[in-house]
Write a structure and sequence with these properties.
2 domains, Rossmann fold, eight-stranded mixed β-sheet, alpha/beta, binds cytidine-5'-triphosphate, 405 residues
Length: 405
C-alpha cells in the first residue's frame, strides 16, 4: 500500500532509467508504467545486453520517448552529456553485476556507461543478481565503492531467483522502487539551506616527524553522515582527520591531522551552522613535546609525556545557541547507556549516538553499525544493525525529528 503523503512526489520529475542486462529487465516495463502513472517523465537508456531481455519498442511505447541503446546510430551521435543533465535522477534498474563493476571502476564501453559517467544528477541503482554473485567479496566491494562515489543503492530483496534458487539478490519490486523514489524526493530538500558541520576519522598526534599516536577509526560513519546531509540539500563542512576513504562530492572538506587542528577548524565553523555532528574519534591525549627530529633507539626504554587534548564536543556544547542542534557519539565497551547519558549531559549535547564495541559488526572498520540514540528530551531510539549509509539516514531523521519536536 503506497503512502498517501508521498503520492505526488514524482509529479513532473524527470527520471532517466538505465537498464542493464539482467533477467529482472523484464520488470522494467512495469516500472516505466508505474513511474508514468505517478506523473514522472521517463527516458530510457539500455545497455546492449539489456536488449536480450526486453525490447526497446516496449519501453519507447510505455515511456512515450525514444529509447537510446547506442553511442551512435545512423551516423548521428547520442548526446549522453545532455541526457545526464536533463534528469532529476538517473535510476539504474536493474543494475547487473557487470554494470556495477563498470560503475565502480569507471569503464565506458556503451551508452549507458557514458551517460552514467557524465550524469550530473544523483544516481540511484537497484541491483539484481544471483545470491552468490551478490555475496561475492568483489560485488560487496563494488557496492561500497559506488556508494562512496555518492550513488544510492536500493536494497535487494529475498525470494525466488532466476537460477531457481531461493535467496537474496532479487531486484526490488517495481512498486518498491517507486516508493523509494517518492521517499527520496520527499526528503532531498528537508535540509535545504541548512548548514551542517560533520567531523570524521581519527586524529594523529605526532611523537616525532615520522611517528604518531592514532586510533583505528576509518571515518566511514562520519563520511556517510556528510553524504546523507548533502543528498538532503544541506551545505556541509566535513572536518576530516587522516582517513583513506574517498570524501563525498559536494562537501566543503577541511583536512586536519591532529586533535588541536580539528578543534580549531570546528570552533571556526560552528557559530555559523544549524547542526553539528561530531563523529570523529578524537585523541584524548597528545604528546606534550613532540620531537623535532626522528627519535633514535639509543635508550633501552622511552617514556612519552602526554597531556589532555581539548574536548571539541564539550567546547561546542558550551557555546551552543538554542537554535543549534549538537550531536555527539559515544563509543563504549562497558556500562554503555550510563556512559552515553553522562556524555550527553556533561558535554551539553542535544543527542548522543551510542555504538558499543560489544555489538558484532559495529564500530571501527566495519561497513555496518548498530546504534542507540539518546536525546536531551529523554527519548531513546534503538536501531538494528545496518549499513553505515542506512545508519546515517536514521541519525539525520532523528535530528530532524528532534528539532521539530
Ligand atoms: N570528542 C571530542 N573531543 C575530544 C574527545 C572526544 O569532540 N577531545 C567527542 C567525540 O567526537 C564524540 C564524543 O566526544 O562525539 C565522545 O567521544 P568518546 O571517545 O566516546 O568519549 P570521550 O569523551 O573521549 O571519553 P572517554 O574516552 O573517556 O570515553
Amino acid at each position: 500500500m503506497r503512502d498517501f503523503y508521498f503520492t505526488y512526489m514524482l509529479q513532473g520529475k524527470k527520471i532517466l532509467l538505465g537498464i542493464s542486462g539482467s533477467i529482472a529487465a523484464y520488470k522494467s516495463a512495469i516500472l516505466v508504467r508505474l513511474l508514468i502513472k505517478a506523473g514522472a517523465e521517463v527516458k530510457v537508456v539500455m545497455s546492449p545486453a539489456a536488449e536480450h531481455f526486453i525490447a526497446p519498442l516496449t519501453l519507447s511505447t510505455l515511456s512515450k520517448n525514444d529509447v537510446l541503446t547506442a553511442l551512435s546510430e545512423n551516423d548521428s551521435w547520442a548526446n549522453h552529456v545532455m541526457l545526464g543533465r536533463w534528469a532529476d535522477v538517473m535510476l539504474i534498474a536493474p543494475l547487473s553485476c557487470n554494470t556495477l563493476a563498470k560503475m565502480a571502476h569507471g569503464l565506458c564501453d556503451n551508452l549507458l556507461m557514458a551517460v552514467y559517467l557524465s550524469a550530473t544528477s544523483p544516481v540511484i541503482a537497484a541491483p539484481a543478481m544471483d545470491e552468490d554473485m551478490w555475496k561475492h567479496p568483489a560485488t560487496r566491494s563494488n557496492i561500497t565503492r559506488i556508494e562512496q562515489f555518492g550513488n544510492l543503492v536500493i536494497p535487494v530483496e529475498k525470494g525466488e531467483l532466476a537460477s531457481g534458487l531461493n535467496g537474496e539478490g532479487r531486484m526490488a519490486e517495481p512498486e518498491h522502487i517507486v516508493t523509494y523514489l517518492e521517499h527520496y524526493f520527499s526528503k532531498i530538500s528537508d535540509l535545504a539551506g541548512k548548514k551542517v558541520l560533520v567531523t570524521a576519522g581519527p586524529t594523529f598526534e605526532a611523537i616525532d616527524p615520522v611517528r604518531f599516536i592514532g586510533n583505528h577509526s576509518t571515518g566511514k560513519m562520519g563520511i556517510a553522515i556528510a553524504r546523507e546531509c548533502v543528498a538532503r540539500g544541506a551545505y556541509v563542512t566535513l572536518v576530516c582527520g587522516p582517513s583513506g576513504e574517498t570524501l563525498p562530492a559536494g562537501v566543503n572538506a577541511v583536512r586536519v591531522t591532529s586533535a588541536a587542528e580539528m578543534y580549531d577548524a570546528c570552533i571556526k565553523v560552528f557559530p555559523d551552522v544549524d547542526i553539528a555532528v561530531m563523529s570523529a574519534a578524537v585523541a584524548d591525549y597528545t604528546i606534550t613535546n613532540p620531537a623535532t627530529q626522528k627519535i633514535k633507539k639509543d635508550h633501552s626504554s622511552l617514556v612519552l609525556e602526554l597531556e589532555k587534548t581539548r574536548d571539541i564536543l564539550k567546547a561546542l556544547g558550551e557555546q551552543k545557541k538554542s537554535s543549534q542542534v549538537l550531536v555527539g557519539f559515544a563509543l563504549e565497551t562497558n556500562n554503555e547507556k550510563e556512559n552515553a547519558l553522562k556524555k550527553l549531559s556533561s558535554k551539553k549535547a542535544d543527542m548522543i549516538v551510542l555504538n558499543s564495541l560489544n555489538d558484532p559488526g559495529a564500530g571501527f572498520g566495519y561497513d555496518s553499525n548498530k546504534i542507540v540514540i539518546f536525546d536531551r528530551k529523554g527519548q531513546e531510539y534503538s536501531f538494528e544493525s545496518k549499513s553505515k549509509t542506512a545508519v546515517a539516514t536514521d541519525i539525520i531523521n532523528s535530528i530532524i525529528k528532534f528539532s521539530h519536536a
